[in-house]
Amino acid sequence: MNKAKNLAFSYSYILPSFILTVVLGIYPIAWAMRYMFYDYKGYGAEKFIGLDNFTRVLKDHEFWNSVVNTFVYAGGKLVLSIPLALILAVLLNQRIRGRNLLRAIIFMPTIISTAVMAVVFFTIFNSYNGILNQFLMKYKLIGSAVDWLGVDYSMLTVILVAVWGAVGNYMLLFLAGLQNIPEDVYESSALDGANKLQQFRYITIPMLGPVMQMIIMLAIINALKGYESIMVMTDGGPVGKTNVMFLYVYKLFFPTAGSGAATQIQEMGYGSAVAFVTAVIVGLITILYFYGSKRMSQYE
Amino acid sequence: MKKKLWTAALCVAIIGGISACGSKESSNPESGSSGAKTKITYWTGDRHDSEYIKELVDEYNQTNPDHIEVELVIKGDDFDQALDMSFQTSEAPDVIRVKENTIQTFYKKGFLAPIDEFMTDELKEKFPLMDNLNSFDGKRYSLPNYGTTMRLIYNKELFEKAGIASPPTTLDELVADAKKITEVGKGSGAYGFAQNFKSPASALGRSARVIAEVSGYGGFGYDFKTARYDFSPFKPIIEAFKQIKDDGSMLPGVESLDIDPLRAQFAEGKIGMYLSFSAEAGVYQSQFPAKIDWAAAPAPSIDGSFKGASGFLGGQWLAISSKTQEKEAAWKFMQYMYNDSTLKQYQEKGFGIAMVPSVSEAAATPSVKGIEGFLPNKYDGVWPVAPTVAVQGTKSDDAFFKYIVSGGDLDAITADLNQRYNSALDAAKASGEVKAEPMPDFDPAKLAGQYTK
């Protein structure tokens, strides 16, 4: 009896989280998984259409363009942010004056609202009166205004903004990893004549392996899912150049076109199918990475 | 053990709290009790008139004899999503702002309640019935207040500097004028033309649409005569925009330009002309006070001849939620908002152009600089509503914008659009979602001049 009571109390601890998980996590997924087999526009009859939505996904050039864009965006973000975060973490792990302040400054973008951050960057990068162009032109570094959010440079711009927003977070995680490496390992290697670069290559990197594996995995998932700053800065444009998977899905569910535009139609059924395919892509990449990077976690 | 009991009680309290958040009734304890206030909510996404609406609501809350208290909620660009969510969570507003391009969807989603039971003969006489704009399937869901005209808005100073005597009336003149303005203005950062291409649908919905309409073609590519989509009339319009871009006469950065930054640049004198709505007059009075002398002129047509009507958009304003528990109170609030004095002031303050004939006759010209160019003229008229279809693949506005920026084969683009839009139309007709019958006698020229004083 006492055991049963204890069990009841134990379950009561997890009940709130369980309810929230079911209501906010499992129910929406189940909802979407049902509607991906339907033609449903948010009103009227729900028409069962079997696998038609998936056939449409296969032929949807805009979606596959968004998949390619996502890979470019995520790849660019990872290639720039992970090494930069590691370098900053190593530097700010040294005993230098003001390191806490520097850590706080670099971490700050992580706690700033993505929308606010994107609006600020829009005022920096816009071509007609952006601060960046004015600065570069003032110092004669460019002859005429560069369209940073135009067809040619928009992807680069959104990647740079994403790196700015992410690097502080990864730096902090690397710092936590670095602080777990025992100091005596460095001391004994120094006695053996190892220089700083050799310590970094043969001690820091290998011993950070398990942490780095997790950081990169989180970074991959975040980069593949990211769309908020892109939505504010370019809304996926121009001509789909920065349209990433999750933004594409969002627009299928919540189409907005502004004044003067024709009435928009929500594509709940098709959007659910695209969301499912998107989740499968993100999941596959994560699994591939996890198995491909197993060696990184073997330095415990 | 005691500690465990407290923890369990806390968990129950949290769960109770969460479920209470979803209950509208519990958040409105005063409703229904004797002598207490009846609380209703009014949601709008409009910002241009927000101060005036706040004043009206405050006045109503203080003066209405029915003890009705209206909570005004002004939403941002997420208005439609928030409304969707509110109906899912039983937190729907009682009164909803509806627009030309939302009322159909809201009606189909079942968000709106018919108001026929409140319509007296006098009201029926006063407020024009507009099919698919304020009435659906024989029932009325909203009433008109103001309409929005579409015009070419131009910087008079740049026109003068470029030696242009009058605004363009043809596409060729539009291209040439944009070039001339850029030639004289580029040195000081001014360009001939601009469009808010961050949203191609909004950019072309306020430019290509009106040029097509005054030229006698449906603004969204739908031909009312044949009941088929045909985007080929848009070809010269899109070619003209592309020419302006290729000439370097378009403001740099239009690819990511939203409407407000465009307006800010126009107010600073950096844009020679653009096409938009009559709301711009109020914008340059308060939101972005214009530092330049500007005016509005009729939109150019393809070849200078007016074979259609410049779209006068509107026909709806407020509607009552189908989920309201206080329909009577909601209607009383609507009646207050639709009184002659409010509607007159709405025009006189420059928020919109009266679409109710009796108000239009009585209201003075708005005291807003530049509004005179937006007042209805013999070319303005209300177009019928084109069917809404779920087209697969690239939408027409995105396809045209891509052509403007990157080029391509415009004939192939329009042929592809026609094929896909008509397939979607056929599917929608087959499923009974839309009704689209040919109107052999449809004459777009006859739409013009409905609202000329």
Automatic annotation (TrEMBL), chain A:
GO terms for biological process: transmembrane transport. Belongs to the binding-protein-dependent transport system permease family. GO terms for cellular component: plasma membrane. It is a multi-pass membrane protein. Keywords: Cell membrane, Membrane, Sugar transport, Transmembrane, Transmembrane helix, Transport. InterPro entries: MetI-like, MetI-like_sf, UgpAE/MalFG_permease. It is found in: Cell membrane. Residues 67-289 form the ABC transmembrane type-1 domain. Its main location: membrane. This is ABC-type sugar transport system permease subunit. Pfam families: BPD_transp_1.
TrEMBL record, chain B:
This is Multiple sugar transport system substrate-binding protein. Residues 1-20 form the signal peptide. It comes from the Bacteria. The keyword Signal applies. It comes from Paenibacillus rhizosphaerae. One of its GO terms (cellular component) is ATP-binding cassette (ABC) transporter complex, substrate-binding subunit-containing. The lineage of its organism: Bacteria, Bacillati, Bacillota, Bacilli, Bacillales. Pfam families: SBP_bac_1. One of its GO terms (biological process) is maltose transport. Belongs to the bacterial solute-binding protein 1 family. Keywords: Signal, Sugar transport, Transport. One of its GO terms (molecular function) is maltose binding.
